[in-house]
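dude i think i finally got it to work??
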Amino acid sequence: MTLRSEIIATQELKANDSVGYGGGYTASRAHRIGAVACGYADGYPRHAPNGTPVLVCGKKVRTAGRVSMDLMTVDLTDVPEATIGSSVVLWGEGLSVDDVAAAASTVGYELLCAIAPRVPCVSTEFGRVDIEV
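look at this
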């Protein structure tokens, strides 16, 4: 199973700017973040901490700030080509669900079972399931 989404906004942060509920992430330096259309209402773990791995344009980045109901933010420092609409893999192809689960102090099976009914599933060849938020 691959859980996919996309970048829906980008923002330049200055040092000491904060993002996420309660300012859960404070920038130590100027850099760019991206908002990803996926949150805990979609089944992504709400308790995933800053630094949980995500793939943007095929490159591993880290979450920045708390996961909210409908979105999360990620550090785009190492992906200058990322723009609105860029592909995001939250787990699956290229990023093990177990790596995401370990960062969130849980197990992969819990994440796979938590996908919300509002998230469309698409069966692909060879029995894989792609889920797009």
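The chain has a mean pLDDT of 93.
im so relieved honestly
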